[in-house]
């Protein structure tokens, strides 16, 4: 059995756009992928709301992916595939980060994961879904603004470059699913389904 670790933020955790909690396992894209891939693969979920690549959360502890990726990988060894989807929270206005800076943060996380797992492990860098238009408007999430939206749309290009330079696999989540209209940043049930279908196909044909 091959072990696949999915390391990400609230969209890996399965946070509901209506703020009512977490989607059930069979609704979350991670659970759907487990069903699609079958018993030959063990899916390890490591999603945390608010997780960034390298930036600290002013209110919540342990949100920096760079601080935890090594511990997480080591605790689940041996890991055959490590797929990392981060960057959305890095787009928050408090960090003032451009796409290139966020990509460098992703690179640091991915390299640490690779070093901890060993040379046999395959690393997949996933550029996250885009932030929806108006995500920072009143009634939505004031931690983002129009600049955040623009940066989120620029991540794919920078992430792909980082992946190519390091010999990692690359997948663009924005090409597979869109954020819910409810909160303009999280996947809804339809989004989880679409993402799982396209991402599992990529894993089977390109990675596994």
Automatic annotation (TrEMBL):
Protein name according to UniProt: Arylesterase
Cited InterPro entries: Ester_Hydrolysis_Enzymes (IPR051532), SGNH_hydro (IPR013830), SGNH_hydro_sf (IPR036514)
Pfam families: Lipase_GDSL_2
Segments forming domain SGNH hydrolase-type esterase: 6-193
